[in-house]
Design goal:
Helix content: 10-25%
CATH class of the largest domain: Mainly Beta
Largest sheet: 7 strands, antiparallel
Number of strands: 27
Strand content: 35-45%
CATH superfamily of the largest domain: Trypsin-like serine proteases
CATH topology of the largest domain: Thrombin, subunit H
Radius of gyration: 28 Å
Number of helices: 10
Number of domains: 4
Length: 469
């Protein structure tokens, strides 16, 4: 009998526990939407576009014809006005509006429509292409209804959200859904940590708010997957990340991000194995910029950054976001893994926007034929020349081999022609013989994995764990 009562008590506890963590779907979003609508705005922009008219009306060259572009140059330049639509939201009663940078990019005139009725001109206070955020000021002395930011870190997968915006120019549109995923990267910007939602987001929703059920903004709707409209996968910039950028744009008119001065890459299982790191974690330093904060602090290529300012770095992509959000000029402890042990370096952060490599545009180069075959790796190479170093702006003391051909069965078949092998097993490569000797020695010792350092076609220094056959 006691066992029956005990089972019944456990069953009741499980039921109440389950109900405690279950939230019913809202009966209606009407009250919430009605309260928030006056704070969401429609944004229309005007840009002048210059095009050339066809000198031969009624005749078109086939697509891809070399004459197509040539004859365009002989056309008469014509100016026309192009318009674009987006969304935004008010965060201050004085009319400060938040939207996406791509909504107002190159705009000559910006008109903000509030509550679907009143139109106001707006000016740009600040914009940041890296995070795709812009701050506008409505040019009016009227008082507006603002909304507040929520804590996006508390948003959970499965939470209800609503999006309000201007899809396809249809202002004041409300859609509802849930948070589908967190920490998404889709390759649109340098700093990505998107909230994914299945609330319908379409063209024109860009810059609009994603609200939680308390009516707080937890995201800025920025992107959709695909070009044919909503398919239940939309992406929003988390409010916690956005607010740091917005505060700087309002205060300074620009951003001031922390800067380490390193190029980093993913720590693979092979690299972790070679470096005797307990697991594949952290960010591998591929190269260090001259006179950068990291260079001054003694960070070296090959170091693995495993902790920054007390925060553990589990994945490479975490480091740039944490560094960027750290105050410029602050001295931080950076824990690196070097020579199979952890050491700490103190680094005074610089400012990314004024750094030497902020807008670096590295060029691809063509190989010159001085070919040697590396049979052990099934590739052909040539020696690196002074001309290569000058054209590719490599460090003057760089030595290595330029890859000219890669066999399909090569253990490095994922590399590219014109990649430069500069180190193998932490030894500099000066000739094809150097490379052959090191690889053959590894094969004789039954070593399964070797560490190769290359400069890729974009002149980025990369560490690669290579499994030998």
């Amino acid at each position: 009998m006691f066992k029956i009562y005990k089972s019944l008590i456990i069953f009741i506890i499980i039921i109440f526990s389950t109900q405690a963590y279950t939230k019913d779907a809202p009966a209606s979003f009407a009250d919430l939407a009605e309260r928030l609508m006056p704070s969401v705005v429609n944004i229309s922009t005007t840009t002048t576009v210059i095009t050339n008219t066809n000198p031969f009306p009624g005749f078109k060259f086939p697509p891809g014809s070399p004459f197509e572009d040539m004859f365009k140059e002989f056309g008469t330049p014509q100016k026309r006005k192009a318009s674009a639509l987006g969304s935004g939201f008010i965060i201050d009663k004085k009319g400060i509006v938040i939207t996406n940078n791509h909504v107002i990019q190159d705009a000559e005139d910006i008109v903000v429509t509030v509550n679907g009725e009143k139109e106001f001109k707006a000016k740009i206070i600040g914009k940041d292409p890296l995070s795709d955020i812009a701050v506008l000021q409505i040019e009016s002395k009227e008082k507006f209804t603002p909304v507040a930011f929520g804590d996006s870190d508390k948003a959970r997968i499965g939470d209800w959200v609503i999006a309000i915006g201007n899809p396809f120019g249809l202002g004041g549109t409300v859609t509802a859904g849930i948070i589908s995923a967190r920490n998404r990267s889709i390759g649109l910007s340098r700093y990505e940590d998107y909230i994914q939602t299945d609330a319908s987001i379409n063209s024109g929703n860009s810059g609009g708010p994603l609200f939680d059920m308390n009516g707080n903004v937890i995201g800025i709707n920025t992107a959709i997957l695909g070009q044919s409209g909503s398919i239940g996968i939309g992406f929003s910039i988390p409010s916690n990340s956005a607010k740091k950028v917005i505060d700087q744009l309002i205060k300074f008119g620009e951003t001031k991000r922390g800067w380490l001065g390193v190029r980093i890459q993913v720590v693979t299982k092979e690299i972790a194995e070679i470096e005797k790191l307990d697991e594949a974690r952290g960010a591998l330093v591929a190269s260090v910029a001259d006179k950068s904060p990291s260079a001054k602090a003694g960070i070296k290529a090959g170091d693995i950054i495993i902790e920054f300012n007390g925060v553990k770095i589990n994945e490479m992509k975490e480091l740039p976001k944490i560094v960027a959000q750290t105050e410029v000029g602050k001295t931080v402890d950076v824990k690196v893994w070097r020579n199979k042990k952890a050491i700490i370096k103190k680094i005074k952060l610089g400012r990314l926007e004024t750094s030497s490599d902020f807008k670096e545009d590295e060029k691809e180069t063509k190989a010159e034929p001085e070919i040697s075959e590396i049979k052990s790796l099934k590739i052909t190479t040539r020696s690196l020349t002074k001309k290569d170093i000058a054209e590719r702006k490599l460090p003057n003391q760089t030595t290595g081999l330029v890859i000219t051909n890669i066999d399909k069965s090569s253990p490095v078949n994922y590399l590219s022609v014109n990649d430069i092998i500069v180190e193998v097993q932490k030894k500099k490569i000066k000739s094809p013989k150097d490379l052959e000797k090191i690889v053959e020695a590894a094969l004789r010792s039954n070593q399964k994995t070797i560490l190769i350092v290359v400069y890729n076609n974009q002149n980025q220094r990369r560490y690669i764990g290579v499994k030998l056959d």
